Amino acid sequence: MKNILVPTDFSAESHHAFEVALQLARQTGGTVTLLHVLEAPETTTGNFSTYGGPVNGSELPNSDGGIDKIFFIKLMEVTKGRLHALRNEAETLAPGVPVTDAVEADRIGDGILKAVERHGSDLVVMGAQGHGAMENFFVGSNTERLIRLAKVPVLTVKHQQSTFEVRNIVFPSDFTEESTGAIAGLQQVQAAFPNAVVHLLHVTNGAETTTTRQHELAFAERAQLTSFQTASISADSTSAGIEQFARQVSADLVVIPTRARSGLSRLFQSSIAEAVATNAFPPVLTYHLA
Fold first, then answer.
1. Residue 162 resides in a domain
2. Left if phi > 0, otherwise alpha if psi is -120 to 50, otherwise beta: which for 85?
3. pLDDT digits over 75-113, tens only?
4. What's the pLDDT tens digit per position in 140-197?
């Protein structure tokens, strides 16, 4: 997780993500690429009045699109200036961390996914909720879509992290045979944060059973975890149980493996990862099962 992509809409939430990415890059010897996606007139089919284009799909009277193009060019110039300002800020926040910037002209979700491929990113760090007409990257639909479709881990950040020191990691699972596919990703997390305690969490609608604990211990052995604790919590929903337990142990990071396919373990359904990523207080890392 050294080649980090940070989509930004210049909101406070995306700045929190940028700060976390810089700290991660400094810890791992990695690099950071800042990305802003502009929905250009050529690639937008809906309402992009924010950029001076058609409103609800209709052209301005007597317009051949020239004004739109001029406005888009000016917006590109302003965007590059804001990205360069963030790069200058990075020199103070994390001296020595290489930071580059890029602008994609596309729909927001598609632009981020294409940038992951183009830049060879192995981690996306992004804000979970942005607000305002110009700052609309991180409404739930875009965050959730990225969690479902990105081929690399996605770290969502909702609040400012003065220091991103990971001491307590919550890893929820049902620890069935299918959870074996989550081991490789968890081992990467453990390697990145070797001093952290991994809390293996089973969310249930009843009391913890001996079988549950046995499954957790067996999983810990397969994953070769060096520092872990087992836990079980009863909750009305899996996502609510994860969020409640994360608060109880003052988690610095929640790690959730996911898979969008249906018919498999309920815990690995992408909807649960999406709900936790957009609601839980600490940063949440999601990745696809092997």
1. no
2. alpha
3. 888 999 999 999 999 999 999 999 999 998 888 888 999
4. 567 778 888 899 999 999 888 888 899 999 999 988 888 889 999 999 999 999 999 9
CA angle 34, 41, 44 (to 5 degrees): 80
Place of tokens 């302003």: 78
Q: Are residues 173 and 151 in the same domain?
A: no
Closest CA to 184 of 230, 222, 217: 222
Residues 138 and 241 in one domain: no
Write down the pTM of the prediction.
Answer: 0.83
CA 18 to chain CA centroid, Å, is: 12
Nearest to residue 90, comparing CAs of 19, 158, 14, 163?
Answer: 19
Number of folded domains that form the chain: 2
Based on the domain organization, do 92 and 198 belong to the same domain? no
Residues 147 and 177 in one domain: no
